[in-house]
Amino acid sequence: MCMAAPARYLCVVCSGRMGMSSPRQVTEMDAPLATPCNIQICEVTCDSFRIMWDMPPEDTARATHFFIDLSRRENRDPNRFKHRDVPTKLVAKAVPLPMAVRGHWFLSPRTDYCVAVQTAVRQPDGDYLVSEWSPVVEFCTGDYAMEHLQQLLDKASGSAGRLLRFSVFYRNQHPEYFDYVRRECGGLMRPALKDSSGSHGSPINGKLSGVFFSCNTEFDTGRPPKDSPYGPLRFQIPAGHLLNPNVCLYFADFYCMYTAYHYVVLVLAPVGTAGDDFCRTRMPRLDLASNPFLTYAAPQRQGEEPVYCHASDVILEVLFTEPVHLDQGGVEQISGHHQLMSLTTANAKKDPSCKVCNISVGR
Predict the structure, then answer these.
(1) What is the mean pLDDT of residues 248-262?
(2) Residue 7 — pLDDT band, cuts 50, 70, 90?
(3) For residue 111, with 0-12 CB atoms within 10 Å meaning exposed, 13-18 middle and 19 or more buried, which class applies?
């Protein structure tokens, strides 16, 4: 069970830069320190965690420092520990456990890490009496928290251009996909698990299922583009089938793939569904009538139609969390090319150096 969090944060010093002496050999005059055991990691976020371990009471009373070795787990090799060849990576003054670890290592979201610890007593001559390294413990950091997604949302809002009207959502695929939907699924496009494309910490990656749609239009025609990187057939569905007062709109991601194009990922989840429940506590909810990306304006007078608008200057990817039947729209051949693979986002990784769509966590 994780103990109450300490009031102060961990103070960390890079040992290699401070000229710290190597831990000296334990002499017969020194009482040895027990090896830390029962390492526990708790309260893990995308950029922080708390760590505690068991020590004998006498070690707890005299320990002055903790040596902490933290590294990314690489190649899924449980025996590979990156800094085993040096005495320690970082030194922290001993504080009540569990110890808060955040920011100083600039932890990445949804990343596997290895951690081991030593307890130490600083001697009058500056050397350290140290325990043996604890067993290595592995853990994975979490997804972006709401505050991080809000940072992404603020950045995406700055990149979104003026709102343009549209009338249909569309989904491009190869003939084999639509043949399979008709033959094996009774014409129902079923939700599929979101892949790992985009920001590493997006909470929908590998966790939320849906059917992806586009809604961007060409400036000159106001219609969907003639080209597609996903296939030569296009399913089109009237916008009101997916975007209406009975759905909730959530912001999920903002990223680019080493190109000038920036993508905004939105989730449309019908009210009260499992998708809505998943998104409600994880992502910022957007006002359908007033947001920078995708809007619905109710009719003002009897006989008028709703107005649907999408943001220009960004490419919208809209994940609808419920099944969609082909009978709700129509499938037709596109007139342009469908080999624009540079625009395909399947499992594409975000450009970590882009100043437009990256945020800072752990600071």
Answers:
(1) 91
(2) very low
(3) middle
